[in-house]
Specification:
Blueprint: H1 2-21, H2 30-41, H3 46-64, H4 67-86, H5 96-116, H6 124-134, H7 139-157, H8 160-180, E1 186-193, H9 196-206, E2 212-217, E3 224-233, H10 237-247, E4 252-258
Antiparallel strand pairs: 1-3, 1-4, 2-3
Helix pairs in contact: 1-4, 1-5, 2-3, 2-7, 3-4, 5-8, 6-7, 7-8, 9-10
Length: 272
């Protein structure tokens, strides 16, 4: 089901690029935007650039991040690259502003579906996750700065009309993504299981977050168990739920929205 979501979302992104954005020289955000610029000013297809620019990030991500996440990300990048190569570049709407709005909405829809399927479209998402592993870096500021760089490039190499339309497209994309998958929201998981050690190892091997373990006794059964507490981003919830189910399908999990997190929000040593 997740693989189907990754493929579907990636094809939607490719349709938005080739039918709405590229014909009007409107860029997307991140690595995809840089790929579109290179595709417009060189003979090579933008899909090829999308794959080549993402390749080193995917290799680093495979080494540093969880294998499942990177597998889904690779699947998304490959699907987007192949789809952009085979979908003809054709102008659906003649109005550039309408194309930037609708194209940006389609990109946001596709990426939102990819996020909900526990993957990413590669590029700046991987860079942000790598930085956040070692430092509580503000993702919004990072992505805004990188996307601002894409807008400046499009302005100098293409036209400032294209740059402003790109700004509109990126803004719409962000709004749609947030409405589908609010990955910036932090949530707290309280996992009650009798397989505490196995659960701890499985989570720490696949998710770069700290885990606190508390010994507990069932009020009704009087059986000993463990309570694992961790704070993750909403972005990671789908994957973490699958990881929990793999170890203990009967585990009791309480998921609550976290208003604020103080301290470093990245992988830490386990507390006992």
């Amino acid at each position: 089901m997740k693989i189907l979501g990754i493929i579907t979302g990636s094809i939607i992104v490719s349709i938005a690029f080739n039918l709405f954005l590229i014909p009007h020289e409107i860029m997307s955000s991140g690595i995809s935007g840089l790929s579109l610029i290179l595709g417009m000013i060189t003979p090579l297809n933008a899909g090829i650039y999308n794959f080549l620019l993402n390749l080193p990030l995917l290799i680093i991500g495979y080494i540093k991040l969880g294998r499942t996440f990177i597998f889904y990300t690779i699947l998304s990048v490959v699907t987007i690259s192949i789809s952009m190569y085979f979908i003809p570049i054709d102008e659906i709407a003649s109005n550039s502003i309408l194309s930037s709005v609708f194209g940006g909405a389609l990109v946001g829809l596709g990426i939102g579906i990819i996020f909900r399927s526990a993957g990413s479209s590669g590029g700046f998402d991987i860079i942000g996750m790598l930085l956040s592993r070692h430092k509580d870096f503000p993702m919004g500021t990072l992505l805004f700065a990188m996307n601002g760089f894409v807008i400046l490039i499009s302005g100098f190499l293409l036209s400032w009309d294209a740059a402003l339309n790109t700004l509109v497209s990126i803004f719409i994309t962000g709004k749609v993504i947030d409405s589908i998958h609010t990955h910036h929201v932090k949530i707290t998981l309280m996992i009650i299981t009798q397989k505490g050690e196995e659960m701890r190892q499985h989570l720490l091997s696949n998710v770069y977050r700290g885990v606190t373990i508390i010994d507990s006794v069932g009020g009704y059964s009087n059986e000993k168990s463990n309570i694992l507490i961790t704070v993750i981003s909403r972005y990671e919830l789908t994957e973490v739920k699958s990881l929990i189910h793999e170890v203990d399908p009967t585990a009791f999990v309480n998921i609550t929205k976290t208003i604020e997190v103080m301290g470093l929000f990245h992988r830490k040593e386990i507390a006992s």
